[in-house]
């Protein structure tokens, strides 16, 4: 009974904030916009067992609209700070102007550690990817910049965004840097139009803002499954519990054509779960039905397979999981 009451209170609060956010004249950074989205994130952060699929249809419709509003607000915020950074002669020397830069440092360290653990099968030599694609890099591609600067110092980064103005802002940040300007490239195109080039990447990152509707996100994933090189790694973000009010949930059966290696659910003040998968060497000749995936949710939020032929999840108490996973979303405190 207590759990039902908590969930009802949570849903009511989110709906109240959605009503206020949806009436804003603009989602560009302002005192009111920042206040409402901060309150929304703080409302959704506490651990919750709420299941979005069991909520009434009208609540699910509001959630879908709210997710899109969150994405739009984040895009405006990134454009604002990218424009500000571009006023410096060497923008990359002033990244700490962005208020959530420290979050990106922690996120990139974690994702690098996770990637290193799954990318190479050589136990004696760490092998770094030669070419990485980041889909949905936006006007402030901090994940690519931090990874390229601190972790993957010899890797090429190819950033894809459908918005040419976003790429224009992003390239202005990188162009003055003698190193990154030679290793970081920007492509203004719809990723659904990119085919053969996808085979050239060892690792593909899929940004949370690509496919804010789960059906659109699944279409992108299916496109990647068709054209990525066999054995290449896909890293993307999902959501768990009340965080699903902010981002769509990517289920294991949404990753057909990939072997799911790990799913990390944050337990603290973070937004997204992190999903790591590897492109299968041969696509399944049939579609995997969601009912064929039999998983058990245990008390600490871990997902363990009971009879799943396609998913190999790491246990929730993996040491990497104890590290703080910070979402690229710049709205958490």
Automatic annotation (TrEMBL):
<dbReference type="Pfam" id="PF03059">
    <property type="entry name" value="NAS"/>
</dbReference>
<dbReference type="InterPro" id="IPR029063">
    <property type="entry name" value="SAM-dependent_MTases_sf"/>
</dbReference>
<dbReference type="InterPro" id="IPR004298">
    <property type="entry name" value="Nicotian_synth"/>
</dbReference>
<dbReference type="GO" id="GO:0030410">
    <property type="term" value="F:nicotianamine synthase activity"/>
</dbReference>
<protein>
    <recommendedName>
        <fullName>Nicotianamine synthase</fullName>
        <ecNumber>2.5.1.43</ecNumber>
    </recommendedName>
</protein>
<keyword id="KW-0949">S-adenosyl-L-methionine</keyword>
<comment type="similarity">
    <text>Belongs to the nicotianamine synthase (NAS)-like family.</text>
</comment>
<dbReference type="GO" id="GO:0030418">
    <property type="term" value="P:nicotianamine biosynthetic process"/>
</dbReference>
<keyword id="KW-0808">Transferase</keyword>
<comment type="function">
    <text>Synthesizes nicotianamine, a polyamine which serves as a sensor for the physiological iron status within the plant, and/or might be involved in the transport of iron.</text>
</comment>
